[in-house]
């Protein structure tokens, strides 16, 4: 496990326990997590957000544990290394729930109701009843996930996000400011500085975003790749499955006949070529499409070659863990043990700041 005395910059991120991952998950986040881990510059904490999965899928929880294993196997197959990163399940670190409760007491409802994703999901997930406390409070739980690991980081905690998600971290910073204002900057502040339970940043230094490249990964219908849209190519898909799915992928609508020239920039398949094809192959595709020198079937076959070549080594590594799921669970338990130490240190400071620690109360001061 990583050294707890590390001076590296700490990174924290997570994924919901929704089962096997697809290319969008890999390109949008997982590939970058592996890169950060291997750089040696970061102390990486990555967690399976199983409680977050309940915010929309609370009615049937039978697959949550299995889904957590599936996500972890995809992580390990993609290159996350438990010797370099701390991997754990959110619900195995109970301090997440404790801090969530405390932060929920101070978070104004108006802050939650204005979160863009709250409104978007209420509009889009029409088949589910999302009028629950848990769904509205999702950003508070997310803030607790983050702030638990910000306290003892040697630099501001970094949260890797795509540019379109950077605003989502702002509510966490607002909650951190509000907590510090209410419980740190008062008559106990000087005492807290001396004991080390608070700093000039309060209990919670504000986390920072670290912007990561997030190429567009379209699904087979041209929309953003998503399991809920039924348009995903999974990291576990066989070569036959990959090629079959890509054959159905939508293309430039101007290419009705084989002899019609097209425009790669208007074709979702081109977005996959940008990720999975070499510069030489992209040049062939660009020229062939614009002159009708190649057909869409050939174009899709070429991008399938790149996708299959990327997935093959991952699937080979994954097979080792599929044959030994106990090993995967042990990795998560070992990670949770390390995460609990960092989380409990934060909670000790939180309880002290809120006067909820277990120490014997001081007698009232005489007038």
Write a brief caption for the model:
The protein has 367 residues and is mainly α. 50% of the residues lie in helices and 8% in strands. The chain has 2 domains: 9-216 and 325-353, HUPs (Rossmann fold), CATH 3.40.50; 237-320, Tyrosyl-Transfer RNA Synthetase (Orthogonal Bundle), CATH 1.10.240.10.
Describe this structure in words.
- By secondary structure, the protein is mainly alpha-helical.
- The chain folds into two domains: 9-216 and 325-353, 3-Layer(aba) Sandwich (Rossmann fold); 237-320, Tyrosyl-Transfer RNA Synthetase (Orthogonal Bundle), CATH 1.10.240.
- The chain has 15 helices and five strands.
- The strands form two sheets. The protein has a three-stranded parallel β-sheet with strand order 1-2-3. A two-stranded parallel sheet has the order 4-5.
- Strand 1 (9-16), helix 1 (23-39) and strand 2 (42-49) form a beta-alpha-beta unit.
- Helix 12 crosses helix 14.
- The protein starts with 8 loop residues before the first strand and ends in a 14-residue tail after the last helix.
- Mean pLDDT is 90; it is low at 1-5.
